[in-house]
């Protein structure tokens, strides 16, 4: 018996010296790294060999009580401490933490408590968060299905949906990055991701930077989420981010530009302008009710909770979508749980049993039921194509604005990153009342907006909207924006070129203001200052020729931007992945690579590869500005 075993036995009285000898021998048989550490991912399997009665979450909770000497790695003494905590828990029979947490959180219903996990901070006992176990389970199922067979992470799947394993698997950023690309294809150039079974803390931080900045780029709210939060497995933040990513993918095609047949959902007397103001989840409800009406059903839905709990509306919807496979037989079942099961059996016949269970239908979980309906819309929209007539001329006029889509998308994402309210879905529609623009002004130039004089009570009459947009124009002029010939009415009318001009100057002011605050002298940064900075950094990172401006044709190949990135962090660009940049496809590959590397370094990037290939000066300025900002910090 070693001295170490005797010492550990004194430290952990619940263990006998011979127990510790056994634990040490078992630990040393594991697949340890060069420093004799065990990967946290393999800890549960190692514990099961000596303590087979313990579940994953018990081991996970024991580990949370330990201060690890190395991130994500467990050494021999820490392994023994985990076992000691588990043994002590067995002897004490629990500590009543559940009741205390329940009282803290104000959850009084046993049924509500059953499907929630209370997460209490070890550092701050007064803080707690809840996660919904049904959501965790269904999101895990989604990830298992979506990422099955992936060459990089397939060996880690399936994740057990009934434990907290999801949050441990998400810590290195790989699963989140893969999920983003599943929801919104090609958002991330996966060549920049750090792969492997043993990643260093620095590599994990880089992956999490990619995941967070890419999530922001597709419109997710990532306020108060940092790479360290993901690396620490902060459950409520990870689950919330996963839901946003899944939701973005499900709602991405609920768009009248991609599917003009959604025009059929307009109600009598409703204009396209009014319809475009609806957020995607409201369009889902409109689609649901459209088919209920077509089925001659007497009920309608206004939410994804109480209106679907009894499964009646779902049953009628499915029978209307695919009558050959889905009958109304579930309506004759009196038990709600059994009726929900029969309804889902109908959904299964058409390949749509996803995201919900009989329990989550009956309980009316709004997120999971929204996901179920969105999946139905994406797979079985059942809307007749529009006929080629003049009856939808306003739609044709709206679709003509496609030429402005990329800029409008980037500017909308940027506005959303400022946490404006409401969320901007369609730039030209959602800024018409001026409120979002004024929020942006007030964020960039604090105190510039006198909110007592702003019309904020929606809906606003047109003249009230114009009062707000006139105020926005006045503020722009006060801050030396170039707004010749632009009036508030132009913004309220959604004139694309003029809306883009105003929002672009706001975005540019934000970038330049950030750079000025980070510079040593605090002076205003000009476009030429940014060009000169880029040339200096690129010179240290590669062989590309200097550029003259952000409209220089040489930018199209993407190689100059890759040289800037390599100058910022030598070695971050793999030269074997850089193409000559002669063909359009080569250029696009370089541009995708540059964007993902920038996000890996921590930059917030909203432009698309096409913006680089086509040399869009405004968007390239935002790219260089973001790089300058992180370089100075």
Rg for CA atoms: 28 Å
Structural classification: mainly alpha
Main β-sheet, spatial strand arrangement: 1-2
Per DSSP, the total helix count is: 31
For the terminal residues, how far apart are their CA atoms?
Answer: 54 Å
- Low-pLDDT runs of 5+ residues are 94-114, 122-126
The percentage helix is 40-55%
Describe the protein.
The protein has helices spanning 3-11, 17-28, 43-50, 56-64, 76-92, 97-105, 110-114, 133-146, 165-169, 174-183, 201-217, 227-231, 235-251, 272-276, 280-294, 312-321, 336-349, 358-363, 366-379, 393-399, 405-417, 427-430, 435-444, 462-478, 488-492, 496-518, 527-541, 559-568, 584-600, 609-613, 617-632; strands at residues 38-39, 73-74, 116-120, 128-132. It has 633 residues and is mainly alpha-helical. The strands form 2 sheets. Strands 1-2 form a two-stranded antiparallel sheet. Strand 3 (116-120) and strand 4 (128-132) form a beta hairpin. The model is unreliable at 94-114 and 122-126 (pLDDT under 50).
What is shown here, in short?
The chain is mainly α.
Topology:
Layout: H1 3-11, H2 17-28, E1 38-39, H3 43-50, H4 56-64, E2 73-74, H5 76-92, H6 97-105, H7 110-114, E3 116-120, E4 128-132, H8 133-146, H9 165-169, H10 174-183, H11 201-217, H12 227-231, H13 235-251, H14 272-276, H15 280-294, H16 312-321, H17 336-349, H18 358-363, H19 366-379, H20 393-399, H21 405-417, H22 427-430, H23 435-444, H24 462-478, H25 488-492, H26 496-518, H27 527-541, H28 559-568, H29 584-600, H30 609-613, H31 617-632
Helix pairs in contact: 1-2, 4-5, 10-11, 10-13, 11-29, 13-19, 15-16, 15-19, 16-17, 21-26, 23-24, 23-26, 26-31, 27-28, 27-31, 28-29
């Amino acid at each position: 018996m070693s001295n170490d075993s005797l010492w550990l036995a004194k430290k952990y009285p619940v263990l006998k010296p011979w127990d510790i000898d056994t634990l040490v021998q078992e630990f040393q048989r594991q697949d340890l790294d060069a420093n004799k550490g065990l990967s946290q991912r393999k800890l549960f399997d190692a514990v099961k060999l000596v303590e087979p009665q313990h579940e994953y979450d018990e081991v996970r909770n024991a580990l949370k009580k330990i201060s690890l000497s190395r991130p994500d790695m467990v050494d021999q003494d820490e392994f023994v401490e985990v076992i000691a905590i588990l043994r002590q828990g067995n002897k004490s029979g629990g500590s009543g933490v559940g009741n205390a947490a329940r009282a803290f959180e104000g959850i009084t219903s046993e049924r509500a408590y059953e499907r929630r996990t209370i997460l209490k901070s070890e550092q701050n006992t007064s803080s707690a968060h809840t996660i919904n176990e049904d959501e965790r389970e269904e999101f895990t199922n989604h990830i298992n299905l979506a990422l099955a067979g992936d060459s990089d992470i397939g060996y880690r799947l399936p994740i057990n949906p009934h434990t907290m394993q999801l949050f441990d698997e998400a810590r290195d950023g790989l699963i989140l990055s893969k999920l983003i690309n599943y929801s919104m294809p090609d958002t991330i150039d996966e060549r920049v991701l750090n792969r492997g079974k043993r990643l260093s803390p620095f590599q994990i931080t880089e992956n999490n930077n990619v995941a967070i900045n890419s999530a922001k780029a597709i419109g997710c709210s990532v306020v108060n989420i940092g790479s360290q939060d993901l690396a620490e497995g902060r459950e409520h933040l990870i689950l919330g981010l996963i839901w946003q990513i899944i939701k973005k993918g499900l709602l991405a095609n609920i768009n009248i530009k991609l599917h003009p047949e959604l025009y059929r959902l307009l109600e009598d007397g409703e204009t396209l302008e009014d319809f475009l103001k609806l957020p995607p989840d409201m369009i889902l409800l409109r689609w649901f009710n459209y088919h209920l009406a077509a089925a001659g059903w007497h009920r309608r839905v206004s939410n994804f909770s109480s209106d679907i709990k009894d499964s009646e509306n779902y049953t009628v919807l499915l029978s209307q979508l695919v009558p050959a496979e889905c009958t109304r037989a579930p309506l004759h079942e009196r038990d709600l749980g059994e009726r929900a099961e029969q309804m889902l059996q109908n959904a299964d016949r058409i390949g749509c049993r996803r995201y919900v269970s009989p329990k989550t239908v009956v309980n009316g979980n709004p997120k999971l039921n929204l996901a179920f309906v969105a999946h139905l819309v994406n797979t079985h929209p059942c809307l007749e194509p529009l006929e080629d007539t003049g009856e939808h001329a306003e739609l044709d006029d709206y679709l003509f604005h496609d030429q402005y889509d990329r800029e409008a998308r980037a500017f909308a994402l940027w506005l959303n990153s400022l946490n404006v309210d409401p969320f901007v879905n369609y730039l030209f529609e959602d800024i018409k009342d001026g409120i979002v623009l004024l929020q942006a002004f007030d964020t960039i130039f604090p105190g510039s907006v006198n909110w007592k004089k702003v019309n904020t009570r929606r809906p606003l009459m047109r003249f009230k909207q114009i009062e707000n947009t006139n105020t926005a124009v006045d503020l722009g002029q006060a801050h030396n924006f170039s707004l010749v010939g632009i009036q508030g009415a132009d913004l309220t009318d959604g004139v694309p070129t003029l809306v883009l001009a105003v929002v672009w100057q706001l975005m540019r002011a934000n970038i330049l203001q950030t750079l000025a605050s980070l510079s040593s002298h605090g002076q205003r940064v000009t476009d030429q200052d940014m060009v000169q900075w880029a040339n200096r950094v690129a010179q240290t990172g590669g062989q590309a020729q200097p550029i003259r401006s952000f409209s220089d044709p040489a930018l199209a190949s993407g190689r100059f931007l890759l040289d800037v990135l390599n100058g910022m962090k030598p070695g971050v660009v793999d030269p074997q992945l850089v193409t000559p940049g002669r063909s359009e496809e080569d250029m696009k590959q370089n541009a995708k690579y540059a964007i993902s590397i920038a996000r890996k370094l921590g930059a917030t990037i909203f432009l698309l590869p096409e913006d680089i290939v086509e040399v869009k000066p405004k968007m390239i300025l935002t790219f260089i500005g973001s790089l300058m900002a992180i370089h100075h910090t």
